[in-house]
């Protein structure tokens, strides 16, 4: 698929779903996360939906939003910070989903979305919700798959959810994780140059 044939996705398509689970998940993230992390999670949701053409399958938008907005909850004080942040976040997100009335199957999928969102070489082969969160988060923090997002959609997402402070904030959070959890999966990612990729990433377009 060429850049010119990438489909446009309008703001209406990535509006926060009006369900109790989605609204309360957003409120939880806003309570425990700095603004840059809230916006990163919202952009990851929007960018993931903007790349739905990559999976060719329908997505449960309620599940996708809850998983996307909570995917970095393991970087916050909402969790105990005793295990790798993806796993702690996945457990917390699954428990949240169950408490808000989602089915066990939906909660399990949210667990896997959060647990695998950094899993290069694995996530893209999984359920569409897992793959799209992987794509959306990767696009936002490291500029991966940007060519698979329509230019107008990219601009509108950045207008809606600015990325001011995200780069420096994410680097600081990741460095803190590596310091506290030297045997975590993220430590291996950093050794492979992930932070350098994050530091180099700049959206070609900046919102006004």
UniProtKB/TrEMBL annotation:
Gene3D superfamilies: Hypothetical protein af1432. Pfam families: HD. InterPro entries: HD_domain. It comes from the Bacteria. Coiled coil: none annotated. Residues 38-118 form the HD domain. PANTHER family: CYANAMIDE HYDRATASE DDI2-RELATED. This is HD domain-containing protein. The lineage of its organism: Bacteria, Pseudomonadati, Pseudomonadota, Gammaproteobacteria, Vibrionales.
